[in-house]
């Protein structure tokens, strides 16, 4: 599966995608993540990606032309590598909210093209004519679509067979049970304070798998 991210801040992605599960997934060629600088798709000498909004109001708006040009070009990489199903996604506060079901659905595509907005947003023609869908990651406003893109890439990748190793689990929609690890009893004593003694629930130490299972199901 291929992710193509369109952004004016490509270096934001360097550290996150080069650690842990996503690093391994790329190394094993289960996912390819390509980050594109929107400025590379401008044609004027100042590489202008934004302009002021029609009708007035604060802030700047991403122009449609560089995004159009970028998406057309990026879709062609897809042809070259014989990819079949693609989906163009625009991050927007007005979009449909990302959840596990949506992540699973998106994991069935061969190529996701992710458009990260900034400033006041993106010329509405991108949502109307270029993007297949608009996605929000939650009811709050961020400064750009870069964090949403990282969230989506990770949430979707976890559904791709082989991305999670044997020791990692995909909890999907249900949520998970509480977990504990050593020590059995955590103690902390600070002068003039009541000492803290925090214990692991006894049932988890019992070795009784039936009881452990029951305890976990109750807490899910
Ligand atoms: N004035 C706009 C805010 C734009 S924020 C509004 O109220 O909708 C700038 C960009 O950040 C957006 O175009 C979008 O791409 C991204 N963004 C901000 N918050 C987001 C969220 N919760 N989910 C997805 N994208 C978001």
Question: Secondary structure elements and their pairing?
Answer:
Blueprint lengths: L1 E6 L12 H8 L4 E6 L12 E2 L9 E2 L1 H17 L5 E12 L2 H7 L4 E5 L8 H7 L2 E4 L9 H12 L27 E4 L7 E4 L9 H11 L1
Parallel strand pairs: 1-2, 1-6, 5-6, 5-7
Antiparallel strand pairs: 3-4, 8-9
The protein binds S-adenosyl-L-homocysteine (SAH).
CATH topology of the largest domain: Alpha/beta knot
The CATH architecture classification of the largest domain is 3-Layer(aba) Sandwich
Instruction: Identify the quaternary structure here.
Output: single chain
Structural class: alpha/beta
Function: Specifically methylates guanosine-37 in various tRNAs.
Catalytic activity: guanosine(37) in tRNA + S-adenosyl-L-methionine = N(1)-methylguanosine(37) in tRNA + S-adenosyl-L-homocysteine + H(+)
Subunit structure: Homodimer.
Keywords: Cytoplasm, Methyltransferase, S-adenosyl-L-methionine, Transferase, tRNA processing
Q: What brief labels describe this structure?
A:
single chain, 220 residues, alpha/beta, Alpha/beta knot, 2 domains, five-stranded parallel sheet, two-stranded antiparallel ribbon, 6 helices, 9 strands, 28% helix, elongated, binds S-adenosyl-L-homocysteine
Account of the 3D structure:
It is built from six helices and nine strands, in the order E-H-E-E-E-H-E-H-E-H-E-H-E-E-H. By secondary structure, the chain is α/β, with parallel strands linked by helices. It folds into two domains: 2-166, SPOUT methyltransferase, trefoil knot domain (Alpha/beta knot, 3-Layer(aba) Sandwich); 175-219, no CATH class. Helix 2 packs parallel to helix 4 (124-130) and helix 3 (100-106) crosses helix 5. The radius of gyration is 23 Å and the shape is elongated. The mean pLDDT is 94. Specifically methylates guanosine-37 in various tRNAs.
């Amino acid at each position: 599966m291929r992710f193509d991210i369109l952004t004016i801040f490509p270096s934001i992605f360097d550290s996150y995608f080069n650690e842990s599960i996503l690093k391994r997934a790329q190394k094993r060629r289960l996912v390819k993540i390509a980050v594109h600088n929107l400025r590379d798709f401008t044609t004027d000498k100042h590489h202008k990606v934004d302009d002021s909004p029609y009708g007035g109001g604060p802030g700047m708006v991403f122009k449609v032309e560089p995004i159009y040009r970028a998406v057309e070009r990026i879709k062609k990489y897809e042809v070259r590598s014989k990819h079949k199903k693609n989906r163009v996604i625009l991050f927007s506060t007005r979009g449909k909210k990302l959840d596990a079901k949506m992540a699973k659905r998106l994991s069935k595509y061969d190529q996701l093209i992710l458009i990260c907005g900034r400033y006041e947003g993106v010329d509405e023609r991108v949502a109307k004519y270029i993007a297949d869908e608009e996605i929000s990651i939650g009811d709050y406003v961020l400064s750009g679509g870069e964090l949403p893109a990282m969230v989506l890439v990770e949430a979707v990748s976890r559904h791709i067979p082989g991305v999670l190793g044997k020791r990692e689990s995909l909890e999907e929609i249900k949520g998970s049970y509480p977990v504990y690890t050593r020590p059995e009893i955590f103690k902390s004593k600070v002068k003039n304070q009541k000492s803290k003694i925090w214990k692991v629930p006894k049932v988890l130490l019992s070795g009784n798998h039936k009881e452990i299972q029951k305890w976990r199901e109750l807490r899910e």
